[in-house]
């Protein structure tokens, strides 16, 4: 599983990337909402300078031709390592094919069902982002949807990566990590529970005491 950081916060990205556990950063208009529109490209550029790995940048919802122009601008933020996120819709799938024909990798996003993941893969998406936490909030089995989608892609020998997004907690992340062929993007707020445990802290405190003993 490749792990991504779902954040547009430069400090969180700086400290997160130093850990060596992330394969890149995923963003979306929600995460960039506090950045004025005219500054967003520069902000993504700043993210790309801090994160030397993959950057996921999402197009705004508008007419296909405009989304395509925006995608071609976004991909220049970090050529060769920018993946364009496109929200799922008939237009989004059309855009996915267009961008694919120009060798621009696409992540179809805001997916809530295995059949949508299949559609994204069939349209040539490099990745497909499933909103796990939002599925749970709708009373559905978020990790179950990812498991089924991953089984379908495997059965159909489709290479599209599934990115589990909107991850609610570590329990969901642990379940997702058991599913072959699935990546995950986690909010900065999950980083601490991902890495820490009360037992580790107790052991560290004990080691500190021992180190200070002469
Ligand atoms: O990457 C998707 C994510 O940012 C949406 O998460 O927590 O708003 O469902 P959430």
Secondary structure blueprint with pairings:
Layout: E1 3-6, H1 10-18, E2 24-26, H2 40-50, E3 54-58, H3 64-74, E4 82-87, H4 90-101, E5 106-111, H5 114-122, E6 127-131, H6 132-137, H7 142-155, E7 161-165, H8 170-176, E8 182-187, H9 191-195, H10 198-212
Helix pairs in contact: 3-4, 5-7
The structure holds SN-glycerol-3-phosphate.
Strand order in space, largest sheet: 1-2-3-4-5-6-7-8
Domain count, please report it: 1
- Small-molecule components bound: SN-glycerol-3-phosphate
The helical percent reads 40-55%
- SSE string: EHEHEHEHEHEHHEHEHH
Give the end-to-end Cα distance, rounded to a whole number of Å. 44 Å
What is the second-level CATH architecture? Alpha-Beta Barrel
According to DSSP, the number of beta strands is 8
The CATH homologous superfamily name equals Aldolase class I
**Individual helix count:** 10
**Hey, roughly how much beta strand do the residues contain?**
15-25%
Largest beta sheet, briefly? 8 strands, parallel, barrel
Classification by helices and strands:
alpha/beta
Low-pLDDT segments, ≥5 res: none
CATH class: Alpha Beta
CATH topology annotation? TIM Barrel
Shape: globular
